[in-house]
Amino acid sequence: MKRSAKMETITYQRQKIYDPILRLIHLWNGLAIVFLMATIWLSELFEKGVGEDTLWQMHIYIGYALVVGVVARLVWGFVGPHHARFSDMWHPAAWWGAVRHFNFNATPRFGHNTLASGAYLLVYGLLVIMAVTGLGLAAIEHSAGPFNAWLGDAAWLEDFFEEPHEIIYYFLMGFVVIHIAALIWHEVKDKTPLAQAMVTGYQYEIEVNPSPMTEVSHYIQGEHHA
Q1: For residues 25 and 110, which has the higher predicted lDDT (pLDDT)?
Q2: Burial level of 35, CB count in 10 A (0-12/13-18/19+)?
Q3: 50 lies in which domain range?
């Protein structure tokens, strides 16, 4: 007696979604955030010394790089291609529906995830605040940066800039961990390549069709260019 087991034929539909400029900005900002965090961690190991001063100077310059990246992302979010624009990430009805029904399974689509895009927009807003407060602290604490002419002698404003800057730092640190963990989890759970989208620009959606086969088959169906 022969048995025929049903296996999954996984068909990947591929589409070019993310343009080179968006991917470069994403890489730029991601590296800047990681290096900024690294300078903070390392500065705690070299307190009250030349090493600490050097690390804080590096922190300031990397902060300038992040400011450039954030400004570039804001501009590209309004003038870039469709999937780079903030309008493609604006889904208030989906956010409200997810909260109302406590259902956080987003409908598959090409482009940013409809639910995760809310978190991305929040992060962009926080990055703007972090950039402004960081420039303020550079002026107040180190007499450096474009705000130095206005804030260089305003030591009384230090707490005003420092507290939100530190709070956002911890939030971003958590976001980075959750973001990476979510990518890994979804790749394993949904069997869909995700992380490579910001490298190659290609995004994948899958169709799972049960069919009697002796092994799992993976293939790409159709290639579309945006």
Answers
A1: 25
A2: middle
A3: 16-202
